[in-house]
Specification:
Radius of gyration of chain B: 20 Å
Low-confidence stretches of chain B: none
Oligomer: heterodimer
Mean pLDDT of chain A: 79
Helix content of chain A: over 70%
Number of strands of chain B: 0
Low-confidence stretches of chain A: 191-196
CATH architecture of the largest domain in chain A: Up-down Bundle
Number of helices of chain A: 9
Shape of chain A: flat
Order of helices and strands of chain A: HHHHHHHHH
Shape of chain B: globular
Radius of gyration of chain A: 27 Å
Distance between the termini of chain B: 40 Å
Largest sheet of chain B: none
Helix content of chain B: 55-70%
Strand content of chain A: under 5%
Strand content of chain B: under 5%
CATH superfamily of the largest domain in chain A: NADH-ubiquinone/plastoquinone oxidoreductase chain 6, subunit NuoJ
Number of strands of chain A: 0
Structural class of chain A: mainly alpha
Structural class of chain B: mainly alpha
Order of helices and strands of chain B: HHHHHHHHHHHHH
Largest interface: A-B, 24 and 27 residues
CATH class of the largest domain in chain A: Mainly Alpha
Number of helices of chain B: 13
CATH topology of the largest domain in chain A: Four Helix Bundle (Hemerythrin (Met), subunit A)
Largest sheet of chain A: none
């Protein structure tokens, strides 16, 4: 079990390093997915299969897909990659690397001073998770519910928009009521207007 | 169970599944032809069943082209993800007593996790192709599959409440007297609809939609890479049918005159037939209709189902 733990931890660390150093946003997000799956594997080796499954379903399977979805919609092509390359030049890495290496050294020294203890593995099944969520931590669950509700209400408010025209023919009909027939210039303007995304629903 | 037996089970399951998935190509074409009053492929071999072989050979000998504008590695990776994730889901299905690859305690969650990873094949395939139609297909696929995953997971929670376990073996055993389709009819309907959307089969094949998007996310694929998407789709149909049979129709349980695995396959093939009949009979909804239908009708229904199931289960338990 502990060999599995160390292998998946190593994969998690490597994948996270790759997330930071990739120039292409989609590649970075894919490494983040790998890192999350490695974290799920760590949970399994520590005896929490339920949390591991939720980690894959929610983080790797839903949230990261949404991230990728938005990156795809933004259509970040080669220009972004070049921009990232300009930003992430080797000399920029030097400072942070040295500082975090010092911190890593401190961490290793601290860990070496501790006596190694075997990982305490007790399998926590779904029933135990449910009992502690809805018993001991019920207030936290409810507060999280409030937060999510606020998020949903906010999203609904931002997403709401008044539908103006179903189709340009309907709009033309509307305009022709009590108005002289639209001139050439007006028509051209309307066509330009319709290229705006909000009127095409 | 010895290690050798386990390896035989794994190999046997893999062999049967891949053959079923390939054979379904023929089954689907013949059945569609029957329902549309024509003959379908009937030349190669008895009843035309060797069309599968001919198709596979054709796919292998086609030029395996990677577009120069594509993201090469993701383009290659995408078709592998769909087949891999669907095959991994079969790990937890009990085909007969003792014949299951891994009897996981979190079986149902494992299935949901694998089906949610399957989204990446569409998203990455569409994005890596670097083609407008593929990208549109990938965007549609991502939002459709994320939305329907929610209802799929929630529709199964009623069963988990009644059984008290995520283990598929325990779920089958709990159906000894009544199938869950009688106690969870709403759950069954929603699971099946979500399953169709999750495998993006007709009528919910909006990510590929030949008539609007050419072939959507796999428009740029050729040769065996396209074949992998194809096989992945048929494996997905088999998976959803097998899961429906296991979760709602008693799995391998059945009267004693047939062996348990035969019952399992009969039930599974019945649902595969329904998948094909749906393709033959229903038109494709519009994209916004699909999403509205999911969030405005299926989500409230599935929540009501959960609430009622929970209340009844509490009352019965005293």
């Amino acid at each position: 079990m502990s060999a599995l733990f160390y292998i998946s931890s190593l994969i998690a660390i490597l994948a996270t390093i790759m997330v930071i150093t990739r120039y292409n946003p989609i590649h970075a997000l894919l490494y983040l997915v790998v890192s999350l799956m490695a974290a799920a594997m760590i949970f399994v080796t520590l005896g929490a299969p339920f949390v591991a499954a939720l980690e894959v379903i929610i983080y790797a399977g839903a949230i990261m897909v949404l991230f990728i979805f938005f990156v795809m919609m933004l259509n970040l092509g080669n220009t972004t990659t070049l921009q990232e390359k300009l930003w992430l030049q080797p000399k920029i890495w030097i400072g942070p690397s040295i500082l975090s290496l010092i911190l890593l050294g401190e961490l290793i020294v601290l860990l070496l001073q501790e006596k190694p203890t075997p990982l305490p593995v007790t399998v926590v099944d779904a029933r135990k998770v449910a009992l502690s969520l809805y018993g001991e931590y019920i207030i936290i669950v409810e507060l999280a519910g409030f937060l999510l509700m606020a998020g949903i209400v906010g999203a609904a408010h931002i997403g709401k928009h008044r539908k103006k025209h179903l189709h340009r023919f309907l709009q033309e009909e509307e305009n022709s009521h009590g108005h002289p027939p639209a001139s050439q210039a007006d028509n051209a303007k309307q066509i330009v207007d319709h290229k705006e995304p909000k009127s095409i629903v | 169970m010895t290690v050798m037996q386990h390896i035989w089970i794994v190999l046997g399951v893999l062999f049967v599944l891949l053959n079923i998935a390939a054979g379904l190509i023929w089954v689907e074409r013949r059945l569609l032809a029957m329902w549309q009053d024509r003959l379908g492929p009937n030349r190669a071999g008895p009843l035309g069943i060797l069309i599968v072989l001919a198709d596979t050979l054709k796919l292998f000998f086609k030029e395996d082209w990677i577009p120069p504008f594509a993201d090469k590695w993701l383009f290659i990776l995408a078709p592998a993800i769909v087949v891999g994730s669907v095959l991994m889901s079969f790990v937890i299905i009990p085909f007969a007593p003792q014949i299951v690859v891994a009897d996981l305690n979190i079986g149902l969650l494992f299935f949901l996790a694998m089906s949610s990873l399957g989204v990446y094949s569409i998203v990455l395939g569409g994005w890596a192709s670097n083609n407008k139609y593929s990208l549109l297909g990938a965007l549609r696929g991502a939002s459709q599959m994320i939305a329907y995953e929610v209802f799929m997971g929630l529709s199964l929670m009623g069963i988990v409440m009644l059984t008290g376990s995520f283990n598929l073996g325990a779920i089958v055993a709990a159906q000894q007297h009544t199938w869950f389709v009688f106690t969870q009819p709403l759950g069954f309907i929603i699971f099946f609809i979500a399953g169709i959307a999750e495998t993006h089969r007709l009528p919910f094949d909006i990510p590929e939609a030949e008539s609007e998007l050419i072939a959507g996310y796999h428009a740029e694929y050729s040769g065996m890479k396209f074949g992998m998407f194809f096989i992945g789709e048929y494996l997905g149909i088999t998976l959803i049918s097998a899961m429906t049979a296991t979760l709602f129709f008693g799995g391998w349980l059945g009267p004693g005159f047939l062996p348990p695995w035969a019952w399992f396959f009969l039930k599974t093939f019945f649902f595969i037939g329904i998948f094909i009949l749906l393709r033959a009979s229903l038109p494709r909804p519009r994209y916004d209709q699909l999403m509205g239908y999911g969030w405005k009708i299926l989500l409230p229904l599935v929540l009501v189902n959960l609430l009622v199931t929970g209340a009844i289960a509490l009352c019965l338990r005293g």
